[in-house]
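[[Encoded backbone]]
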Amino acid sequence: MIKKDEPNRGQESGQESTAPPESPSRPVEPAADAAPQRLDSPRRPEGPVSAPSNRADDEDRFDLGALEGMTMADLLGPAPGRGSRDQGRGSAPAAAPATSRSVDEFDFDEEAFLAALDEQDFVGTTGEVVTGSVVGIESDGVYVDIGGKAPGFMPKKEAALGVITNLKERFPRGTQVEVLVTREQNADGMVTVSARALALRQSWDKVRVLEKEGKVVQVKVNGFNRGGVTCDLEGLRGFIPRSQLQEGENHESLIGRTIGVTFLEVNPETRKLVLSEKKAATAARFSELEVGQLVEGVVASVKPYGFFVDLGGVSGLLHQSSITRGQMRELREVFDQGDRVRALITDLDPGRGRIALNTALLEGQPGELLIARDSVMAEAAERAVRARSLLRQQEQQAG
């Protein structure tokens, strides 16, 4: 047993003490000034010993002094693409990486860049209208250069609205044509184009404008069936039902005749173009009429509330409240069916096809029509002048 006041013999010989450490979890470290174990020592130390240091040999071999203070990142060098952003942070300089260039250092021509983009643009989106020149003709169609990597092909049946018998005469090489792209590029970069489809689109656009403006157009009847007759309008096939013809009972006789029509239905999606001769006659007649105008017609029918007067293609209503300012026992006391009537127009509604008539304004005194109808009708033109002045005053007071 070693006494507490007696020095450890192992320490005198440079050996570590074999006494257990004060704490089992804390290993005993060798003394800082302990000398390395001699190889010829008669005893082998029982405890761990420090490994012999080869630092002097490593320093001579690798010049470790130059690496002192460097981190692992300094030894590995910058990551690819990072450049030298991490230098100057207190670390030792690493080996110079390969020279890299930033975007700003490259020559950049914006016009050349945009031109390159244009070359990559796809030419010929379905529904696009393009202009090109004829570069080739085959028996089944025409090749049109529209600026793509391959010319567009226009089948013979798509070359026009009508029938073309000779493509070479209709489309000489170099002819400029405007076409509609109907099918996008195939594997060879070729698109399908159509002059006929473009003409049809333009025709529907024109017809829509005519319908919106309420125009009366002239068409030539070129066919008939049990339900009506057909015609051509702006290259489109139109149909006029028998009920919309002035001579619907004998519609076969209209073949080859030109008649005025207006629009009942315009639908490009369903390709329905329905026309009306009767509506056209009404529209044409309405265009000749105005409020305050004196018109003449024949009583077509008598109703409990007034008379319907045929004005030549259109009918006007002479309401019982506008016949006379006097007291009537019944309508037929003034006019009857078949009588000729002269009256003033007091209201027009072309959209609904209504015309309001008035004979009371032609009277000099209330009830004059009841006792002197013929005189009032004979002097209607002179009386209408005074009546129009009265109408204008009423309009100003109402406005």
About this structure: The chain has a mean pLDDT of 78. The CA atoms of residues 112 and 218 lie 56 Å apart. Residues 129-199 form a domain with the OB fold (Dihydrolipoamide Acetyltransferase, E2P) fold (CATH 2.40.50.140).
